[in-house]
């Protein structure tokens, strides 16, 4: 029992922490920005540019997440588009047909040859990747006389060779002093090139 004059001390109060507050909800991921990143990573050219611009606009107010994906996708789209343009330009230069008679010597791919193209030297048998084309007034070893597509290209290199040889034999008359040379297409292509060699006497005097 407490006596008069005794001091009574209350225990220290206990404070309850209360219910924990839930974290604020996160903004959802933006599907357009994700698509921009994916299409940019696989190099789809203009597609990620459009999606990236849309994604950047959709995530501007932070209502959706993924703004960095939109910008990365847009950048990858720009890079792949420039690469496409560069590759297309090179392909155009390599496949653009030559004039019938060039004004100066130049290297070309077989796909650029036309009827009338004169070759400085005739490549050895086998795959032909590039040839040197010269003005026909200059000394040359062979001349293209026929460039024609096979109507129904057969399958297999042997049958393509036979079809090309038959086409050139039918289209090119016997040429005195010249030899018929046949360039058959490879599987997947259909253009046959028939050339006639230039006689040595004319070649040395040209």
Helix amount: 25-40%
SSE order: HHHEEEEHEEH
What would the average pLDDT be, to the nearest integer?
Answer: 85
Number of domains: 2
Number-wise, the strands total 6
Specify the biggest β-sheet: 6 strands, antiparallel
Cα radius of gyration in angstroms: 38 Å
Unreliably modeled segments: none
> How much strand?
5-15%
Shape from CA axes? rod-shaped
Structural class: alpha+beta
Strand order of the largest sheet: 1-3-2-4-6-5
The first-to-last residue Cα distance is 138 Å
Helix tally equals: 5
Word description of this protein:
With 206 residues, this protein is α+β, with helices and mostly antiparallel strands. The chain has five helices and six strands. It has helices at 31-41, 46-58, 67-95, 157-171, 200-205, and strands at residues 106-108, 118-119, 131-134, 142-149, 180-183, 191-197. A hairpin with a 7-residue loop joins strand 5 (180-183) and strand 6. The longest helix is centred in the middle third of the chain and has 29 residues, at 67-95.
Summarize, please.
The chain is an alpha+beta fold and 206 residues long. It contains 5 helices and 6 strands, in the order H-H-H-E-E-E-E-H-E-E-H.
Which properties best describe this structure?
206 residues, alpha+beta, 2 domains, six-stranded antiparallel sheet, 5 helices, 36% helix, 14% strand, rod-shaped
């Amino acid at each position: 029992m407490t006596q008069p004059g005794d001091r009574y001390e209350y225990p220290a109060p206990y404070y309850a922490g209360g219910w924990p507050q839930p974290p604020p909800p996160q903004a959802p991921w933006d599907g357009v920005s994700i698509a921009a990143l994916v299409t940019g990573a696989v190099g789809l050219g203009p597609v990620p540019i459009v999606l990236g611009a849309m994604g950047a606009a959709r995530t501007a107010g932070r209502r959706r997440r993924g703004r960095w994906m939109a910008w990365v996708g847009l950048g990858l789209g720009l890079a792949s588009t420039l690469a496409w343009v560069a590759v297309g330009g090179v392909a155009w230069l390599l496949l653009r047909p030559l004039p019938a008679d060039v004004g100066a010597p130049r290297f070309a791919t077989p796909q650029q040859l036309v009827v009338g193209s004169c070759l400085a030297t005739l490549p050895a048998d086998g795959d032909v990747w590039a040839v040197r084309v010269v003005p026909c007034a200059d000394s040359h070893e062979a001349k293209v006389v026929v460039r024609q597509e096979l109507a129904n290209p057969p399958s297999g290199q042997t049958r393509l060779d036979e079809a090309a040889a038959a086409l050139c034999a039918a289209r090119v008359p016997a040429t005195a002093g010249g030899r018929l040379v046949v360039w058959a297409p490879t599987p997947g292509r259909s253009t046959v090139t028939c050339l006639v060699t230039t006689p040595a006497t004319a070649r040395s005097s040209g």
